[in-house]
Amino acid sequence: MNQPEYREFRCCMCPNINKPETQCPAGPLKPKVTQCRFVKIYVDNRGWKYRVMGGIGGDAYKARYQKPGKAGWHCMRNLEWRKSFDEAQSDLNAMAKLKKWNECDP
Asked: For the segment 53-65, what is each residue's pLDDT rounded down to a tens digit?
């Protein structure tokens, strides 16, 4: 599902700021719902999935990974805890770009 457009940060007028929404809503400047080009889930060549999830307390977010065939998600030790979802997603997007991970469906 790779798409050519990539955003390092969320659109400036996005109504989903700091939310894990994967779709951009329709609005006065955009007639239909589209896939968000900022909030993404990735998969590497081993089949491990990566996404941002919240921690305990509501203002702690971090990228996590899930191994194939397993149910649990584990924190990525090489990325920091962030106070907002968008900061953590930006960290994950940068790492995915560096490691050349592919996007996958939620």
From this structure: 999 877 899 999 9
CA separation, residue 58 to residues 27, 37, 42, 102 (Å): 28, 24, 23, 28
In whole angstroms, give the CA distance from residue 48 to residue 45. 7
Distance CA 22, CA 11 (A): 13
Which one, of 22, 33, 45, lies nearest residue 102 by Cα? 45
Backbone phi, psi, residue 39, to 5°: -80, 115
Kindly state the DSSP code that residue 41 receives in the 8-state scheme: E
What pLDDT is stored for residue 1 in this prediction?
47
Asked if residue 74 has pLDDT above 60, the reply is: yes
3-class SS of residue 85: helix
How far apart CA 77 and CA 71 sit, in angstroms, is 19
What separation in angstroms does the CA of 53 have from each of 2, 33, 66, 71? Answer: 22, 23, 12, 14
Residues 79, 92 contacting (CB under 8 angstroms): yes
